[in-house]
Design brief:
alpha+beta, Rossmann fold, six-stranded antiparallel β-sheet, 6 strands, single chain
Length: about 350
Amino acid sequence: MRPLRLVFEGFGSYRDHTDVQLSDVDFFVLTGPTGAGKSTVIDALCFALYGTVPRWGKTNAIRDALAPSVNECTVGLVFEASGGRYAAVRQLRRDARGKVHTREARLDRLDPSVPPDAELAAVLEVAQPVAEGERVSGAVAELLGIGYEQFTQCVVLPQGRFAEFLQAKPGDRQDLLIQLLAYAVYEDVGQRARERAKVATGKLEMATKRLDELGTVTDDVVAAATRRARELEDLTSAVDDAVEEMATLRQRWTEANEKARAAAAVLTELDALRRPADLVDLSTRLAVADEEIENRTEARVAAEKSEAETEAARAELPDPAVLARWRDAHARATALHARLERSRAAAVTAEQAERTAAAELA
């Protein structure tokens, strides 16, 4: 990781905007009297990456980040890592009750075409977001390959510990170096390696002892052992087949047992059935109903037969049009016959009148 630019405002003892350009240098030294703010610059770098500073004590103690009498602070670090250029930016704000909150935390991959000394807002405008909020510290650790603890032990030594290291006695210096570099981890690794080596040595000695007990192994012994191994392999195959068959039989037995239980449950339910008290009356009513159905069936058959005969008789009748003509002719004949009878009656009456008149004239 190579820092290129550190920008902060309202952080620690720096109330005003501060822009530290590091892109054009390979080495740099922070000099100044005690209290000038050298450590605050290093704190700002560490805070931009991990959101905390070693000398604050607790990792979540961010109240000391704000400069006195300011309510907001901004810290941003532009750096190169893993072949890319990134920016880690954090903003804090103090509320009306004096409690400090993280307003924004972000990690972005920057466009390499934008110079690192450009305005931070312009740099972030074309950036590609990588992480936000609480995920920034984890993303930084993954990007750099080291977490906060390793960073403060291997890259940034806590304030005062380096002077303590230079002035300490050789024995104390070694202990302090173990603390600073977390060398105790390697001691634990070495101890575990020695324990594993001890266990491996014991196994080797036991194996050697057993080989010595076996003595000289002849070709006949090897051949016999080979035959025995083959026999055991055949036996193993047979046992596997038997186990598989046993599993199949067990499955079939389980299914048969389940069916038997179901049948037993059905039998229990059938045994619980009782003949209804009105079953005899119901049988009588059913017999009467059957007889009625039979009678009605016979009547229906007779009706269907009569209907069929009627249809057949009607089919043998003349055409209705002919019948109509016959009916009209009969009506006309009846009318003519009536007129004839009236004419005959009139003729008889006239003849009688004529006779009467003739008699009177005579």
